[in-house]
Amino acid sequence: MTSLFCSVSWPRGRKPRRARLLERLESLLPWASLEQMISPNYPRPETGRPPYPLAVMVRVFVLQWLFDLSDESAEDLILDSHSAAAFVGLDPWKPRPPGASAIGRFRLLVEAHENDAFRFEIGLALLGAKAELRLGRIIEPRLKIKPGGVPPGNEK
C-alpha cells in the first residue's frame, strides 16, 4: 500500500528528470538476472535481524553506480528523494531504508564478481535497448563556518 504522501503531486506538474530517468531504467534492466547473480552470495541469516530484500539492495546499487554516489550519499539520496525511494522499492513512511554500512557491504559483495560481471550485465541491457547512458554525479554544496566567524551586520 502506498502512503498518502507518496501519492500527492503538483497539479499539472511534470515529473522531475530523475524520476523520468529511473522510470525508464525500471523497464530496461533485467532485474531478475541481476538478482540471480548476487543471490548465491547474499546472506540468509536464520537468527537475528533479517537483511534487506535483495531486490531493494540491487536497485540501491544501480542508483549508487548511476549517480556515482558514496555509500553515505546513496543513503541520503534515498532519504531525500521520493523518486529514488520509489525506484528502490521503499515507501518513505515505512521502516528506515538501508544505511550506509549495509549499502557498503552490498557494494563489496557486487564488486567481488569476476570481471565486473554485474555492471557488464547492466551495460549489455542498455546496449540492447539502444540506450545511451552517461554516468553523472550529484554534487552537493558544502558549507564550512570558520571558528569565530561573525555573520555580516553583527560586527562590533
Structure in words:
The protein is mainly α and 156 residues long. It has a domain at 16-43 and 51-128. It is 47% helix and 0% strand. It is globular and about 65 Å long. The termini are far apart. The model is unreliable at 1-6 (pLDDT under 50).
How would you summarize this macromolecular structure in one to three sentences?
It is built from seven helices and no strands. It has a domain at 16-43 and 51-128.
How many helical elements? 7
Number of beta-strand segments: 0
Could you tell me how far the N terminus lies from the C terminus, measured between alpha carbons in angstroms?
Answer: 57 Å
In terms of DSSP E residues, the strand content is under 5%
Q: Helical amount among residues, as a percent range?
A: 40-55%
What is the arithmetic mean of pLDDT?
81
Low-pLDDT residue intervals, each spanning 5 or more residues: 1-6
Name the helix and strand elements from N-terminus to C-terminus, one letter apiece: HHHHHHH
The largest sheet is: none
Structural class: mainly alpha
